[in-house]
Amino acid sequence: MTMSYRCAAAAFTFATAFTLTASAAQAQGASSGKWEIEFHGGFAAATTPDGGSAGTLPVATPLSTLPFSQPSRRISSWFFGDGTALINSVNGTLAPGSRLTAIDPVITSSSASRDNGGNLGFRLVRRFGPRYFAEGAVDFSNTPLRFSQEALDGIEASRSTFVTAFRGLFISGPSPNPNVTATVDLHEGSGREVITTGVFGIDLLTHGRFIPYVVGGAGLAHATGDQPSATITGNYTFPIPVPNIAPINETDRIAIRVARDDNAAVGVFGGGVRYAASSRWGVRSDVRATVGGGASDVVIDATPAVATTTGTSVILVSPTIPSAVFSTSQFTSSSLSGPAISGLKTFSGSGSSLRTNIVGGVYFRF
Predict the structure, then answer these.
(1) Cα–Cα distance between 46 and 290 in angstroms, integer?
(2) How confident is the model at residue 136 (pLDDT cuts 50, 70, 90)?
(3) What number of other Cβ atoms are within 10 A of residue 335's Cβ?
(4) How does pLDDT run across 158-179, given as a tens digit for each residue?
(5) Is residue 3 in a domain?
(6) What is the pTM of this model?
(7) 8 A C-beta contact, residue 237 and residue 248
(8) Which residues pair with 18 in a beta bridge?
């Protein structure tokens, strides 16, 4: 009788424990939920496509000068194209060794690259069974466009040689002490990207605390903020040693701007691992690559300015073929009297950017 009582008690104890365990499992499954929200941060890197095609630079037009003078050309800037060719041709005769470095390589090629930076974002996940899930995500990547080092070197070379080229020319004849300056106003820009994606994911394991997974999908990269620009301003002025004669005073200004599409379709793929700290929350770390868009164009503006006078004026014409003309007259134009240029695209970029985000975050299940 005693033995039977003990066996019954053991069976009762086992059944009770089994019932409690099953109830706990059911409660955990019920509380785990099908939705997750995640907040993450990490590192963002992006490549810049350098493919594309150069645009056509403006062609100089003939400029009539004084009778019996050599023909000249009307240009919008000395810094590029026919303007640089003209001043270097004149200096080749009058001031050998004083050459202006053209800005052409900068404005006819991809001149910008993206910096690496930080990433912040959030994700909303909907789970379908123990293995599959869909996810929407928004990432804020601080990867602004900057002028490449090659472009910065080219801009500086044009700025510095503007001074040496025109000092060399003017010292060779019209003025022993010309005032020639050239400055660069560089704006680095504050451009960032907001990347919105939707992906489908698969867990590679269905049990355990560490769950590896892979994802793939598509989305949109939206560029925000200002893009880089640089303005080179060159000026030369020198007095004429004759009473009541206005000095030669001309300003050559060119602005170089990087432009890009505000929106670009992208594809995304990657993978990572999730650690479930409990049925309610956990941590996740992954790497995702986003491909698409990212090409940039180069656009220029040119605004030549020549000071003229209604009084006694002066016209200087170099004794070269072709000649360079500098004038304060309202009736005889300087060589730097071409039309202003606004929004001329000198390079059209093509190709796709590869963005890589390495992030870690915390998710909550509900």
Answers:
(1) 9
(2) very high
(3) 28
(4) 999 999 999 999 998 878 888 9
(5) no
(6) 0.84
(7) yes
(8) none
